[in-house]
Amino acid sequence: ETGVTQTPRHLVMGMTNKKSLKCEQHLGHNAMYWYKQSAKKPLELMFVYSLEERVENNSVPSRFSPECPNSSHLFLHLHTLQPEDSALYLCASSQDAGGAAAGELFFGEGSRLTVL
Amino acid sequence: GQNIDQPTEMTATEGAIVQINCTYQTSGFNGLFWYQQHAGEAPTFLSYNVLDGLEEKGRFSSFLSRSKGYSYLLLKELQMKDSASYLCAVRSLWKTGAGSYQLTFGKGTKLSVIP
Asked: How far, in Å, CA of B113 to CA of B38, rounded?
């Protein structure tokens, strides 16, 4: 496999469920990101990890909990979500988070989340 | 903070040229990026400008004027497959958190190419 892969591609969950989104990158990059994409709104940065350390938490509610066990894997744990959290969640990676290549992001296909 | 504006939708004819504009206000500019996103797919990187001027890459070119807070993406010889959303994104100069840049996206311009 190449690039950035995300699973599941689609997820429907109730407000009391606990689920996780998974992202894996095969590019040898050092930085990984979670973005949220809602209809008619710009891509919103949620979390940034650089070399497995979280360096950015963009005021995201605690019901979203990221985990980065190594530089190739990133998870987003979901708990007691609200219907307004329904969106496309995109994972991305870049060579690094603070150098010249920061900004050239490689995105996964996204996980379409519906909260009932 | 950052504010990025781009038109919501545009329509152009196959074989023609289209220019998608992006204006921004930022508290520390360090580069402007363009991404393409086909419906139901991931965004893909198109171009990057950090200095004023035109960057050409095949049928696509991107222009930047830092003094005007303005960029455009120029698509030549339009093809039906160019129908997609085009996202303008600004990277901020000052690192947030512990060493990352902040990349802020516009809402995107949905381009429809018609025969």
From this structure: 12
